[in-house]
């Protein structure tokens, strides 16, 4: 049994060719979602006033007008398998804006001198927010003794993408992403608490079948996703991270905490592609503030309709942009 909220079953697109089906990326009609969580609280580490101030500062730091941003949108080969997603209304512009926001915060002097410190705080905040999205506790106990299993799982996965470990993780990801996903799945499972060679640890990293997809079908979909990660597409890294994020949420390939795995994988895409090379952005905080919208958009991705895909990608990219504001707050405090 899985212990995290999922995404609901969604209707197919009535046989019409959707961007997902044209790209070879399976859509959500065969997904294995099981419903949404409806909590309304959010993770907020700064006041609304401070958040607004930082958003304004981020816009000023970009130093680009809307016209110039539009002109700088890169073209994508129409034959690219993910070109239909790039061409969805508003997606290309949102991807460019998110990238500029992240680039700007990387130039903050604290991030130039102490990026290991700011990067560590980003990963920690992201892990706490991701655990809360998964139905776990968001606060670290004062004594440091984490007893909530979902928060503990998120922290174990976060160790794999911490500044100390991200270099090696990213290198493996670029050539063998399924190997990294298996490690995420192990760390996200109860077996991740142990270091023995138990059968539970061996099984934790393998896809598990459900009433919608067999384990073999999920394995095949992971191979397709891995092809995109390793170079089958030249789509903007922000859109690729949205696809990886959404597809793992929809597919739910592993037994435990697939949401934590999906969000960590989307972070890893941003780092390994150079979109966010130091892992400073904290998009998870934005997604918790918009929790209901997040799960609704994930259901839209699962539907594989153009509008559903568009709304998911835009929400994901808005998270990246807002995550840069959160990162600026971290850097200001260092």
From TrEMBL:
Annotated Basic and acidic residues bias: 198-212
Listed name of the protein: Fido domain-containing protein
Segments of skewed composition (Polar residues): 63-72
Biased composition (Gly residues): 25-36
Native source organism of the sequence: Corynebacterium lactis RW2-5
Annotated region (Disordered), positions in chain: 1-78, 188-212
